[in-house]
Design the sequence.
């Protein structure tokens, strides 16, 4: 009996000893070897944290948390062990990293382009594109953003897109109302994908719509997965999807260039034409790889975020009848006050949707579609008393900022009225990132969401099939059943002028 008890304790001690030994490997390698020894580490004043296991770091803990019903348990484990320091060292996505969870630190990292550059994992850049916005230098990004911003987010462009978005929204809602049960999120993603495809590819969009949408779905499942390039794994499938996307886009680029050479300026202007025509002050134009990577990124970001946030905004409106009622009244007033000869929405009317804008902002805060973005220190940088060593990744954990009870009272509560008279302090509201790398399509996304909710609020309601359906958090937060339910038409009296 005593021998058995002794053996049991011996085994337990061996397990804990092995765990301690393995957890010490990363500390020894990344702090003692990579940073130049104990004295350098002490001088640097690294934030507290956990490097996790050799090679994989804390990725298992991250994936386990985000595949559970409590994704915030990942950060909570750092807070419970190391205190509310706001910054934690770790090893994720193959790199020594510092997780940042406070507005002040997020603002510093996002706006200091002298000290930080994009730091997305190599696996992510392989999928989205090394020549896209997430991979290029500050100078290249500034130039490319300048030439693409107006055709996507400019006042004239947004005004021009309204009619096309409206037509597709009205048609989609009418169609869904006649279909019975649908996966609401799936249909919304198809709708937002159709819109962004038209903006970028106009005439070619219909021909390749279904094929591209299918490949993008596969691509997104690999973005937050472990970079295991073996058959059967999500990352492997995502790489195959990217190859197919590149092949399709290359065919479109070749065909469009040939048509432009033949017809010249008669070709209809869209974002593809802009990318083919643009050149810098030295006459350099974008090559095919650059054009394709920009297309891959824009078309992906331009429909995923809009589709998911529209679904969540609709869900929250239905769940909170008092919010629904107030938002609907605002839309009815807009329709009532418009001139009798006006057909459809105007950009001026959309900018008058004050309460609906708060509904959208609150949805963006609660859901936090992009819960983390990546930067990399270009030099040793001191942030809030801690040093981020040169070459280390910085993971800006927006989800922690948006759900911090010290910033937002009852942060898990959906409450659009919290935005009444509130100007969030810098770094505390980051739905589209910030600094020079602010999402280039943020205004277009909010335009799409506003137009959809305008027509939905006036004439429709959503009846979910399974309101208690569990949530999935990777690659993006969504109901497991993709919000299965019925879209019902409840009125046809308030949109005679719409």
Sequence:
């Amino acid at each position: 009996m005593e021998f058995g008890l002794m053996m049991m304790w011996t085994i337990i001690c061996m397990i804990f000893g092995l765990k301690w030994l393995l957890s010490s490997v990363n500390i020894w390698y990344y702090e003692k070897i990579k940073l130049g020894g104990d004295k350098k580490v002490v001088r640097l004043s690294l934030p507290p944290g956990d490097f996790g296991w050799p090679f994989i770091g804390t990725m298992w803990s991250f994936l386990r948390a985000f595949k559970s019903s409590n994704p915030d348990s990942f950060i909570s484990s750092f807070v419970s062990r190391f205190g509310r320091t706001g910054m934690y060292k770790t090893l994720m996505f193959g790199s020594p990293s510092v997780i940042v969870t406070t507005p002040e630190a997020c603002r510093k990292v996002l706006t200091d382009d002298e000290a930080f550059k994009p730091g997305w994992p190599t696996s992510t850049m392989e999928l989205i594109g090394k020549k896209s916005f997430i991979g290029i230098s500050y100078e290249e990004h500034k130039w490319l953003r300048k030439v693409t911003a107006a055709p996507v987010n400019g006042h004239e462009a947004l005004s021009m897109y309204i009619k096309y978005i409206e037509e597709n929204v009205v048609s989609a809602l009418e169609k869904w109302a006649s279909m019975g049960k649908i996966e609401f999120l799936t249909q919304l993603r198809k709708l937002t994908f159709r819109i962004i495809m038209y903006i970028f590819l106009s005439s070619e969009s219909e021909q390749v719509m279904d094929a591209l949408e299918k490949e993008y779905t596969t691509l997104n499942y690999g973005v937050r997965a472990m970079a295991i390039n073996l058959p059967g794994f999500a990352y492997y499938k995502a790489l195959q999807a990217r190859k197919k996307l590149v092949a399709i886009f290359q065919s479109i680029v070749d065909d469009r260039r040939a048509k432009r050479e033949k017809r010249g300026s008669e070709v209809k202007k869209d974002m593809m034409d802009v990318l083919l025509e643009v050149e810098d002050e030295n006459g350099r134009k974008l090559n095919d790889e650059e054009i394709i990577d920009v297309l891959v990124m824009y078309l992906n970001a331009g429909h995923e975020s809009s589709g998911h946030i529209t679904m969540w905004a609709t869900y929250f409106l239905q769940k909170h009848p008092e919010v629904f009622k107030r938002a609907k009244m605002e839309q009815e007033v807009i329709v009532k006050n418009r001139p009798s000869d006006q057909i459809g929405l105007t950009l001026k009317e959309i900018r008058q949707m004050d309460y609906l804008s708060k509904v959208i902002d609150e949805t963006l805060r609660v859901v936090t579609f992009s819960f983390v973005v990546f930067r990399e220190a270009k030099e040793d940088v001191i942030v809030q008393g801690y040093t981020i060593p040169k070459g280390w990744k910085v993971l800006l954990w927006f989800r922690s900022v948006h759900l911090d009870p010290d910033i937002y009272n009852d942060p898990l509560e959906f409450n659009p009225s919290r935005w009444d008279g509130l100007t969030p302090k810098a770094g505390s509201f980051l739905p589209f990132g910030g600094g020079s790398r602010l999402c280039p399509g943020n205004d277009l996304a909010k335009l799409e969401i506003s137009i959809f909710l305008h027509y939905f609020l006036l004439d429709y309601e959503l009846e979910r099939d399974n309101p208690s359906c569990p949530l999935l958090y990777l690659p993006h937060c969504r109901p497991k059943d993709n919000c299965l339910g019925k879209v019902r038409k409840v009125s046809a009296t308030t949109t005679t002028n719409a």
User: Anything to note?
Assistant: The chain is about 55% helix and 10% strand.
